[in-house]
Design brief:
5 helices; disordered N terminus; alpha+beta; 278 residues; three-stranded antiparallel β-sheet; single chain; nine-stranded mixed β-sheet
Length: 278
C-alpha cells in the first residue's frame, strides 16, 4: 500500500502538467538579438500605490521580467520580420486598498442537492470555465502542483446542475502551498495557515466580490486597479500571522478571488499579472 507521500505525489503529477501547459499557452515570447546571445523578454510596467501614496514607482527597464523557451527564441540572423517585433508589454497600475481585517464572508445556504453534484477533474474544470483559471506564475518556494488530498477537501471540484435549473452553483477553490506549508500539512494532516499559501476561488454563477462587506473594513473608498485595461480590486490586511493580499476581478465572465497569504506585494502582483498575459 502506498504511504501518504507516495499517494499525493502520484496525484500531483496530473496537476503539475496543468500548470506547465498553462505557462506555455499564456506566455508570449518575443525575440531580440544581442552581440553575444538571443533572449526573450516580456516587459512589465508596474506602478503600485498604497493608501493613495505612490509606494513603488514604475519598474525601470533593468528590472524587466525575462522568459525564454529554447524552441521559441529567435534572433535577427533568421531574417524574419517578426524577429524585429517589439517585446509585448503588460501595463499594471495597482492600487492596494488597506483593510482592517480579513475579508471572510459567511457562506450562504443555497440548498445544494447531493444528487445534482457533478464532479470535475482539474482538466474538466478548466474546460468548464473556458478561461485560464490556474496560475502561470507562483512565488519561489511554492509547489507547482495544486494541493490535492484523499479526503475530498482539496483538489476535488464539482458543479451543481439540475435539468430545470441548469448550473446553479459552480464555486470552486484551488489551493497552492509553499514547501513549508506542505511539510506542515504532511505532519499535521491539515493546513497550517501560518505558512505561505495561495487560494484561487472561481465561479460563473456567483458574484464573489462582496463590496458592501469589504467597504466596512476600510475608511477610504475602494480604489480600482488595472492590468492591461482589466479592472481589479486589490486589498491588503495584516493579522498575527503576517501580511495578506486579496484581489477580485472578472475575466471572460468568470469571477475570481485570489488570496495570497504571507507572500510579498511583488509576488502577489506577479501572480495577478500572469492572468492577463496573453
Amino acid at each position: 500500500m502506498k504511504n501518504y507521500k507516495e499517494t499525493t505525489d502520484s496525484i500531483f503529477d496530473k496537476s503539475e502538467q496543468i500548470i506547465e501547459v498553462g505557462r506555455k499557452r499564456k506566455k508570449t515570447i518575443a525575440g531580440i538579438s544581442g552581440p553575444l546571445c538571443a533572449c526573450a523578454i516580456l516587459v512589465v510596467s508596474i506602478g503600485i500605490w498604497r493608501g493613495g501614496q505612490a509606494d513603488i514607482p514604475v519598474v525601470p527597464s533593468d528590472n524587466t521580467s525575462q522568459v525564454a523557451e529554447n524552441n521559441q527564441v529567435h534572433n535577427n540572423s533568421s531574417g524574419n520580420e517578426s524577429d524585429n517585433m517589439p517585446a509585448p508589454t503588460v501595463e499594471a497600475n495597482i492600487f492596494v486598498n488597506e483593510l482592517s481585517g480579513a475579508t471572510n464572508v459567511a457562506a450562504m445556504d443555497i440548498g445544494l442537492m447531493v444528487e445534482d453534484e457533478i464532479s470535475k477533474t482539474p482538466e474538466e474544470l478548466q474546460e468548464y470555465y473556458g478561461t485560464e483559471i490556474y496560475p502561470t506564475e507562483l512565488p519561489d518556494g511554492f509547489r507547482k502542483e495544486m494541493l490535492m488530498d484523499d479526503g475530498g477537501v482539496y483538489g476535488h471540484f464539482s458543479i451543481f446542475q439540475r435539468e430545470n435549473r441548469g448550473v446553479y452553483y459552480d464555486q470552486n477553490t484551488i489551493v497552492y502551498v509553499s514547501e513549508a506549508a506542505m511539510s506542515e500539512y504532511e505532519r499535521l494532516g491539515y493546513l497550517n495557515w501560518t505558512e505561505p499559501t495561495i487560494l484561487i476561488t472561481v465561479s460563473k454563477t456567483r458574484e464573489i466580490f462582496w463590496d458592501t462587506v469589504i467597504s466596512e473594513l476600510t475608511e477610504a473608498p475602494l480604489q480600482t486597479s488595472t492590468i492591461s485595461g482589466n479592472e481589479l480590486i486589490v486589498c491588503r490586511y495584516e493579522n498575527q500571522s503576517g501580511e495578506h493580499y486579496v484581489a477580485y476581478f472578472t475575466k471572460d465572465d468568470v469571477n475570481f478571488e485570489i488570496d495570497g497569504n504571507l507572500i510579498s506585494e511583488e509576488e502577489f502582483t506577479a501572480l495577478l499579472v500572469g492572468y492577463f498575459t496573453e
